[in-house]
Amino acid sequence: MQDRVALDGILMKCNDQAHRDKAGSDCEIARVAAERLAAEKESNEIASRQRDFELNRDKLRQSDEQRKAAQSAQKKFDPYTLPVVPVEPAPRAASKADPPP
Fold first, then answer.
1. Using DSSP, how many helices (H) and how many strands (E) does the chain show?
2. 91 pLDDT band (50/70/90 cuts)?
3. Distances from the Cα of 96 to the Cαs of 4, 13, 89, 91, 93, in angstroms?
4. Could you give the C-alpha distances from 63 to 35, 53, 67, 76, in angstroms and in order?
5. Quick one: which of 10, 38, 69, 90 has the fewest CB in 10 Å?
6. How far apart are CA 64 and CA 72, in angstroms?
7. CA-to-CA distance for 1 and 13, rounded, in angstroms?
8. What span, in angstroms and rounded, lies between the C-alpha atoms of 27 and 14?
């Protein structure tokens, strides 16, 4: 049953109450063909979704690798290579107990 229109027509006749008594091997063949077409369509959709998933996963992996490469290319901060700057102590606040200089 390669002709989808003929297949649908036969299935409609088979499902009709008036023709149900006359249903023969054509109805059985049409039902089997419809089931096979549905199974084929479903397997094609599953394969298509799997391909799309793989493509999206590869794109995500590539973007993650690019982001990691960009982060590793940035100069890292190393506190041990900074120049030493002398720090002077903060002046003490004068209190009433301290004698004036």
1. 2, 0
2. confident
3. 104, 111, 21, 16, 10
4. 42, 15, 6, 21
5. 90
6. 12
7. 15
8. 6
